[in-house]
Amino acid sequence: MATVTSAICDYEPDAVLMVGLAPGRIGIMPERVAINMDDFRLVDNEGNQVVDEPVVEGGPAAYFTTLPIKTMVQEMRQAGIPASVSNSAGTFVCNHLFYGVMHELRNQDVRAGFIHVPLLPEQVVKCDEPSMALEQIVKGLTICARTVLTHQKDIALPAGEIA
Disulfide engineering: 151 pairs with which of 68, 86, 129, 135, CB 3.0-4.6 Å? Predict the structure, then answer.
């Protein structure tokens, strides 16, 4: 997370789109909420397996995305890319990053959110596991970025956090 927050400080972006791989997902899925909970059923890349610990001690229960996720999904679908809103980023590394970045940005005017993408065909282990071609993923993420630049958030929620 430190690498991402450092880059945000260095580049001062108007928006931050975080992306992670989600085996089993059928399409591109912008996430609605990040929760203040790490509960890893697997070890992460550094060998850590955190169980039932907050991402940020004393932080709010959750943060909502500040991206126009429904419009992003609509635009991707119009381009023929499978997409849908996801209501949970889970409790693993992707949620940890999503929550941590949202917490860092809580007092800044920077739109941010997380997008899960499916496996690439070459990453599929089981023959019936969903996947998406890299070109389609890139096209979908490009649509998401363009949508963020041209639309305001489309959710009517309080300033991003859930106490």
Answer: 68
Measured between alpha carbons, how far is 10 from 89 in angstroms, rounded to an integer?
26
Residue 156 pLDDT:
43
Q: Which of 75, 96, 103, 116 is catalytic?
A: 116
Tell me which of 75, 94, 96, 144 is the catalytic residue: 94
* Residue range 61-82: mean pLDDT, rounded: 97
Whether 116 is catalytic is: yes
Active-site annotation holds for 135: no
Asked if residue 161 has pLDDT above 60, the reply is no
Q: Taking the alpha carbons of 66, 89, 133, 76 in that order, is the dihedral positive or negative? A: negative
* CA atoms lying within 13 Å on the CB side of residue 17: 20
- pTM value surpassing 0.85: yes
- Residue range 55-59: mean pLDDT, rounded: 96
